[in-house]
Amino acid sequence: MIKITTVNVNGLRAASTKGFDAWLAATDAQVVCLQEVRADATQVPAALREPEGWHLPLFAPAAAKGRAGVALYSRIAPTRTQIGFGSAEFDASGRYVELDLPAADGLPGITVASLYLPSGEVDTPRQEEKERFMEEFLAYLKTTRARLEAEGRELVVCGDWNIAHREADLKNWKTNQKAAGFLPSERAWLSRVFDEAGYVDVVRSLHPDAIGPYTWWSYRGRAFDNDAGWRIDYQIATPGLAKLAKTAVVERAVDHPSRWSDHAPVAVTYGA
Fold first, then answer.
1. Domain boundaries defined on the chain
2. Residue 137 class from Cβ within 10 Å (0-12 exposed, 13-18 middle, 19+ buried)?
3. CATH architecture of 2-270
4. Which residues are catalytic?
5. pLDDT digit string (tens) for 108-157?
6. pLDDT digits (tens, 9 = 90+) for 156-182
7. Residue 23: how many CA atoms within 13 Å on its side-chain side?
8. Residue 74 is inside which H or E element, if any?
9. What's the chain's Rg over C-alpha atoms?
10. Looking at the DSSP assignment, which residues form a beta bridge with residue 237?
11. Is 10 annotated as a binding residue?
């Protein structure tokens, strides 16, 4: 069995002061994928640079200070690491990092990736950036799946995809149909990831009829208390790995004061 958890920390240094360190020490996950780290390894507390029981974290900071940034923590020694996905525009933007884990205990070799897809903003250059990223990344997903299948490996891309795919994936879908993150074009693109590239939304495959489970709630108003959230954090896997998924849980905080991010961790356990 292997447990993989993903969470957008909304600034790792800030999360560290609110309880992230205790959460990392207590989790039984073998791999933790982080997004929106907003720091490089030299800027985070020593306990997070060299955490006990973990291999040295792999950080991909953004070129723009205080923006984006992804990281991977693994209790299993990786056999390969990679920052970026071969994009001239985006490889220095701190939005993608991956590592290879060896086959063990009946599980295949698994490539685990942490993704922070741009959030976008309708009718602005930020939305154009998001669309360029999506186009390049879909091509990478296709070629990588073909390569890994030839190697007998599986892939799971964990992270903040910044798109709610279905009406069941956000509370107030009727009022957000023209908002970035729920645009018809974005949802259609995510459908292409599943239908054209052949990947599987692991949480949805285990909970096909569920509302949510939501993974992000705005800090404004009483969104968290009213569970007015969005499901934008995913584990999207190749079919062979998705078939091995046993459980999927959103680790929602017990109350608003207990939150150390505006996102909640999404944990999936895979087993042979």
1. 2-270
2. buried
3. 4-Layer Sandwich (3.60)
4. 116, 160, 263
5. 999 999 999 999 999 999 999 999 999 999 999 999 999 999 999 999 99
6. 999 999 999 999 999 999 999 999 999
7. 23
8. strand 70-74
9. 17
10. 156, 200
11. no
Q: Whole-structure pTM over 0.85, yes or no? A: yes
156: closest CA among 44, 240, 81, 55? 240
Beta-carbon contacts of 269 under 8 Å, excluding residues fewer than 6 positions away, are 1, 2, 3, 245, 246, 247, 248
C-alpha to C-alpha distance for 265 and 226, rounded to whole angstroms: 19
Q: How many Cβ atoms are within 10 Å of 168's Cβ, its own excluded?
A: 18
Sequence letter at residue 158: C
Q: Note whether 156 and 118 are within 8 A (CB).
A: no
Say whether 36 counts as a known binding-site residue: yes
The reply to whether 172 sits in an annotated binding site is no
**Distant-in-sequence, close-in-space partners of 140: CB < 8 Å, separation ≥ 6:** 85, 86, 87
